[in-house]
Amino acid sequence: MSVLTLYHGSPNPTLEPQFGKGREHHDYGKGLYLTPDIQLAREWAVCNETDGYLYKLDLDIESLNVLDFDEYDPLIWIAELMSHREADDSIRYKRFAPQFVEKYKLDTSTYDIIKGWRADASYFLIAKRFVRDELDASLLREALKLGDLGIQYCIKSKQAFEALKQVYDPVEEISMDIYLEKYNERDLAARKSLYDLINSERNTLKDTFRNYI
After folding, report:
1. Rounded to whole angstroms, how far apart are CA atoms 76 and 109?
2. What pLDDT does residue 65 have?
3. Alpha carbons 109 and 67: distance in angstroms, whole number
4. What is the model's pLDDT at position 146?
5. Spatial distance between the Cα atoms of 86 and 98, rounded to a whole number of angstroms
6. Distances from the Cα of 11 to the Cα of 26, 29, 42, 114, 143, angstroms
7. pTM of the model
């Protein structure tokens, strides 16, 4: 099936998808971020500690070029993240991050949609631990699947925005009192699982960030 049903959680009471909008310093740069998981969208709607709103959209991807980071080495995803956001604030990171990005970042300019992990909260912690040489590269893919934190789609191109149709069901109002706790519980569980992985004997620290710069 070429039509995906996706959701957008937001603190904003209206949604007007527009090409070229968004923040360059978000995970994959400017774009509209959606998820196929309605529960995650509800939690993301309130993660800024305010009540939010849930929007439902359909996206026909039949003629669109989709980059799926799950099909690549996680190093590629980290390089994309590092090209938009700082994974650490150390002098060492600032010195070597450009080399890592130049070596591993894909050219995403030809893609209409980017599909991948959401680099917020626990996922961003994975990137931080890796660039600090605290997590072995062989464990990155496993780490990214901890805590069931979900996948997001970033709508990038004009063609992708034209293929996006909002489903005009009544907009669902999301209560922070209910879903912020769920968001925090999911994040804490993922962090615990990550720390357990980092402290395990399997984390040999023989293949860390310093080996890739």
Report:
1. 15
2. 96
3. 10
4. 78
5. 11
6. 16, 20, 10, 23, 29
7. 0.88
User: 111-155: per-residue pLDDT in tens?
Assistant: 999 999 876 666 678 888 898 999 999 999 888 877 676 789 999
* Full DSSP string of 30-74: SSEEEBS-HHHHHHHHTTTSS-EEEEEEEEE-TTS-EEEGGGS-H
Task: Judge whether 167 and 126 are in contact, CB under 8 Å.
Answer: no
Beta strands in the chain, from DSSP E residues, in sequence order:
3-10, 32-34, 52-60, 66-68, 113-117, 151-155, 164-166, 172-174
pLDDT tens readout for residues 10-53: 999 999 898 877 777 778 889 999 999 999 999 999 988 999 99
Instruction: Give the CA distances from residue 116 to residues 36, 88, 179, in Å, rounded to whole numbers and listed in that order.
Output: 12, 21, 23
| Three-state DSSP class for residue 50 | coil
Q: Considering only CA atoms, which of 126, 160, 138 is closest in space to residue 18? A: 160
131 and 209 Cβ atoms separated by less than 8 Å: yes
Q: Of 56, 11, 52, 55, which Cα lies nearest the Cα of 178?
A: 52
Residue located via tokens 């990550």? 194
**8 A C-beta contact, residue 152 and residue 117:** yes
CB 166 within 8 A of CB 15: yes
Sequence-distant (≥ 6) Cβ neighbours of residue 49 within 8 angstroms = 176, 180
Cβ pair 62, 70 in contact under 8 A: no
